[in-house]
Amino acid sequence: MDMIVDLYANHPFWIWMAFGAVLLAIEAATGSGWLLWAAASAAVTGLVSLTGLTSLPLEVFIFGALTLVTTLVSRRFIREVQGEGEDINDQASRLIGKTGRSVGAFNEGHGRAFIDGAEWSVDLEDGVDLASGVKVVVTGVAGPRLKVRPA
Prior knowledge:
By secondary structure, the protein is an alpha+beta fold. The chain has 4 helices and 5 strands, in the order H-H-H-H-E-E-E-E-E.
C-alpha cells in the first residue's frame, strides 16, 4: 500500500491519465457511452493535479463532480441531436421526413437522390418517372432503399 501512496504522491498526473485510459479502453470495448465522460473527467483531473495545489480528496471530488456534470449535459445534448427512441446507427430511418433532390432521371420509379449529404437509391411511391433535380421527400425505408415522393 505504501508503494501506491508513494507513486501517487510523486506522479498524480500519470495516475489520473492511466485511470482515464483504462476507462476509455473499457468504453471502446463496450460502446456504452457512459464511460467516455468519466475518462475525459479523469484527464481534466490529471491536468488539475499538475498545479500541485490539490490533494487526493479534492481531486477525487473534482473527478466525481466533472463526471456527473459532463454525463448529465451529454445525455441532454445527445437526446436533442439523436431524438428519443431512435437508433443512432440506423441512418436510413432518421431520414424519414427529410428532403433532397433527385440525381439523374428516374426510370420506372427507381433512381437516386441526394438526401442529407449523401446519395441514396430510392423508389418513388407512385412508381412514375421523375426528372433530374426535382425536390423529393423521404416517406419510408424499404430495405436498403428509401421510399420518396415529389415534394
